[in-house]
Structures are given as structure tokens and as C-alpha cells.
Design goal:
Layout (H helix, E strand, L loop, with lengths): L3 E6 L9 E9 L5 E2 L3 E6 L2 E4 L10 E5 L3 E2 L4 E11 L2 H8 L10 E4 L7 E2 L9 E2 L1 E5 L4 E4 L5 E2 L1
Parallel strand pairs: 2-5
Antiparallel strand pairs: 1-2, 2-8, 3-7, 4-5, 4-6, 6-8, 8-13, 9-10, 9-12, 11-14, 12-13
């Protein structure tokens, strides 16, 4: 499947939908991908769950927008903008409860593939990859940065 790009909108209570950009990549993970999971590009047209324990896997291209993507199927990956998800969906990818914590930075987790953490990696040899800033319990402004080796 070719790598495609596009723009999208999501509903907003302010009446002005936030904009985001996305690419479509094939889910190369042996399992499912869910909304909010951080991914890296592991083939020219594919992706897998990102992990902050190695350089290549810490190069996040974005986070999954679709609610569920099974292995081998196309996934819409948000690369820039504001992503909305339910508090439950954010809890799945942060391991927390109640969704995102307002005004908190989230980073790629070094221990569990695809997960986000509010605690930046601190162990020598891991990679610090910023994912974004929580605007509310349900919205994150993506601010991905290049991985920094610790």
C-alpha cells in the first residue's frame, strides 16, 4: 500500500475543529494498534509500535488515529496537530486513569512499545522522544522531536 498523506478535522466544542495532518501506513505489528499508540516507520510504507530503547524504534512518525487497526491493514497516523481521544483511550496508552494530565508533556515509553509516559526516560542508553503536550484530559498537541540519546 502506498504511503499517503492528508489533512483531517475533529469535532470541537468551540465550533472550530482542530486541524491535523496524517499519513497512512500499513500496521506491521503482529498485533492490533489503537488510538494514541506511538509508531515509527519500519518499512517505506509500514509502521510498528515505537519504543525509546533503541535509536530506530525511537524515531516516532506520529500516533495512531484509528480506534483499532489489525495487523496488515492501513493505519491513519497523525503527524502534526491536535489529537482527541476519550479518557479511556488515553488511559490505554499512558497506563493512567482519567485521561491526560493538563499541561503535562508526554514522552515515548522506554519499556512498553507504543506507550506514552509523563516521565521522560532517564536511563543511559535510552532515548528521550517528546510526543506532545496535554491540552486537556482528552486532547494532545503533538510536538514530536528527534530522539535524544541519554
Amino acid at each position: 500500500m502506498p504511503n499517503t498523506m492528508g489533512n483531517g478535522t475533529m469535532g470541537s466544542t468551540s465550533g472550530v475543529p482542530p486541524m491535523f495532518t496524517f499519513i497512512t501506513l500499513t500496521n506491521n505489528n503482529i498485533g492490533n494498534l489503537v488510538r494514541g499508540v506511538a509508531v515509527y516507520s519500519n518499512t517505506p510504507n509500514g509502521c510498528d509500535k515505537a519504543l525509546a530503547n533503541a535509536y530506530v524504534t525511537s524515531l516516532v512518525v506520529g500516533i495512531v488515529y484509528d480506534d483499532l487497526v489489525i495487523s496488515g491493514k492501513p493505519a491513519n497516523i497523525v503527524t502534526t496537530g491536535v489529537v482527541a481521544a476519550t479518557t479511556t483511550q488515553w488511559d490505554v496508552v499512558t497506563g493512567g486513569t482519567g485521561g491526560l494530565t493538563f499541561n503535562t508533556l508526554y514522552f515515548l515509553d522506554p519499556s512498553t512499545a507504543g506507550m506514552l509516559t509523563a516521565t521522560p526516560p532517564l536511563v543511559v542508553g535510552q532515548y528521550n522522544t517528546l510526543i506532545g503536550l496535554a491540552l486537556s484530559a482528552t486532547k494532545m498537541k503533538l510536538s514530536t522531536r528527534d530522539a535524544i540519546k541519554l
